[in-house]
Amino acid sequence: MQDAAAVAQRSYRVGEARSRRVMLSPALTVLVVGLVCPLIIVLVYSFLEAGTYGGVEWRFSLEAYQQFLFQRDIFDDSLSFSTAYLEIFGRSLFMAVLATAVCLAIGFPTAYFIATRPPEQRMFWVFLITVPYWVNLLIRTLALLFIIRDQGPINAALQGLDMIDAPLRIAYTDFAIVLGLAYSYLPFMILPIYAALERSDTRLVEAAYDLYASKARVLVDVVIPGAKAGIIAGAILVFIPSIGSYLAPDILGGGRELLAGNLIAQQFQASRNWPFGAACAVILMTVVMLGLIQFVRSQERTRRGEMR
Amino acid sequence: MKDMATSLDETQVPPATDPLVAKTALTVSGAVKYYPNAPMPALNDVSFSIAENEFFTLLGPSGCGKTTLLRSIAGFEDLTSGSIRLDGDSIESLAPNQRPINTVFQHYALFPHMTVAENVAYPLRRLRLDARAIERRVAEMLALVKLAEMADRKPAKLSGGQQQRIALARALAPNPRLLLLDEPLSALDLKLRREMRTELKQIQIKTGITFLFVTHDQEEALAMSDRVAVMNNGQVEQIGRPEAIYNAPANEFVATFIGETNALSGLVEKTGSGAAQVIVLGGIALAADADLAVGERVGVSVRLEKVDLRPPGEGAVDAIVEQTVFLGTDTVVHLKVGKETLQARLQHTDRARPVPAPGDHCSVHIDPGAATVVARSNR
What we know:
- The complex is a heterodimer.
- Chain A has helices at about 1-45, 65-70, 85-115, 120-130, 135-150, 155-160, 175-200, 200-210, 215-225, 230-245, 245-250, 260-270, 275-305; strands spanning about 50, 55-60, 70, 80.
- Chain A is mainly alpha-helical.
- Chain A has a domain at about 85-270: MetI-like (MetI-like fold, Orthogonal Bundle), CATH 1.10.3720.
- In chain A, a hairpin with a 5-residue loop joins strand 1 and strand 2 (about 55-60).
- The radius of gyration of chain A is 25 Å and the shape is globular.
- By secondary structure, chain B is α+β, with helices and mostly antiparallel strands.
- Chain B folds into two domains: about 1-250, P-loop containing nucleotide triphosphate hydrolases (Rossmann fold, 3-Layer(aba) Sandwich); about 260-375, CATH 2.40.50.140.
- Chain B has helices spanning about 1-10, 65-75, 115-125, 130-145, 160-170, 190-205, 220-225, 240-245, 250-255, and strands at about 25-35, 45-50, 55-60, 80-85, 90, 100-105, 180, 210-215, 225-230, 235-240, 260-270, 275-280, 285-290, 295-305, 305-310, 315-325, 330-335, 340-345, 360-365, 370-375.
- In chain B, strands 6-7-8-3-9-10 form a six-stranded mixed beta sheet, with helices on both faces. Chain B has a five-stranded antiparallel beta sheet with strand order 13-12-11-14-20. In chain B, strands 15-19-16-17-18 form a five-stranded antiparallel beta sheet, with no helix packed on it.
- In chain B, strand 12 (about 275-280) and strand 13 (about 285-290) form a beta hairpin.
- In chain B, helix 3 (about 115-125) packs across helix 4, helix 3 (about 115-125) runs parallel beside helix 5 (about 160-170) and helix 4 (about 130-145) crosses helix 5 (about 160-170).
């Protein structure tokens, strides 16, 4: 009897493993073709020499990584430490952090508003959030440029009301870039926070309110801790595309000051230095990944602490 | 000796619960609550008052309005009309965080990201007590619920019963004028529930705080309460001490909801000077003190344990045993009396008298004073 049960269980397990492989294969194919292969190509290219007219020469070289930190003197070929590219990455980081903060400041109240609507109305509000995103990102970014430029409706209205004499300089500033980034990725902040708030325990809100907490204290002590997972997910989802973003800095910032995304794009287009572009991409990705791993680890630690 | 007798008397009938002597803590009068889009009111003219130091229970089936009433007293719902007074002052305009009333929630509602001690300290912090006083009060409360050693744990690490005690400690910490308990024991298993009953009652006596307890469990209500209000369809059906509710139910709903009962149909045979004789099961005469008319049909409630089984011929009517259900301390016997059914609960104390088996013939005796008239037919 026991043997029969063991055989049955083993054949069940074999069958289960086979069907699991079959079910996973489409997703695995997409991941391998669309993610792993390109990443390997980028990684390999970053260790090759640049071709004269773009492309690569198949010779191993660390030149690209060297170029990131050191400047080669045109006359005597000597290397000197240069922070030019580090500054670009630093500025990208700063912009991404600002954009994430702006998204959080706008996204949390929005998500809270939706989560506190009657259940049958919530889907409608979520739907409204997604409407602007039916339009292509490039077109939306260009539209934003038309709104904030010197001759745009904002400046026209302010001038028409005699509130300002000369047009406000909004377009082609760092402010415009942050605005564009926040606008591009706002739903990625709103939706996870909304999901967390909707799942959070409203009874805890009542309990705090019953135990003499003011409405502000209820928000700080119960609502925000309850939505923490959503806030973290939203911040990651906004921060990562923001730091490597290309469109908003290029169009709204006028490409005057380079950000990481534009620097990389430039290497593949105008500068025709593919290995350097690939190296920049690898460095950016590594920095972001290490930062995320560190963050996730610290989260795990506090969670384990909570379960202690 | 005399002193002891009076003190004993006092424990049986705490003076605080005597509405004539005790100070009134809470008064609800004419409470009506309509929810939007609901045709029937959730509360339909509910009035009662709770004396200081009393353990008062709202008992009723789900949807009877007891939770709405509790939430209105806590401040989470507004009444459509009627008033709620605490120590004589109207509290309707106060928000929940302004009412000196705390709630023990059904599912505890402990803050998961705070430790047990932080949970208990929470209301004290919001009331801006100084740190030393908070620390002392938290220790006192954790000792009261016997969980001092759990102070630094997170609620997720506690069992259901422990979480329940922490919720109680947290709600008692600010020493509220009134403690509301919203079915606090319903999520616990039976054994724990019974233990917690005794403990809740002890804590109430020890702290001297007025308890308003909400439950659908009649056993819980009878076991702990000084007085019980039985609710149904948004109305209070009866208010009284547990014994009065059990032994003299005001109507059929109370009789059937509290404990198990035989709801019988009776015919009034004789009347005179405020007493009447009612015949049930075609031959058992019962006394009724209600003002009834001869020939009137009435509903009569007879508790299962009041039905006495005797050998054939010795009782008033004959019966056949249909089924017996063994319940440990006692056995419920289902009987057929003519066309009517009757249930009797036999305790296993009398070893000489065996429990009858299905198919046995026997006869039924009911003490004339054991019945309560609970319903009157429309004349």
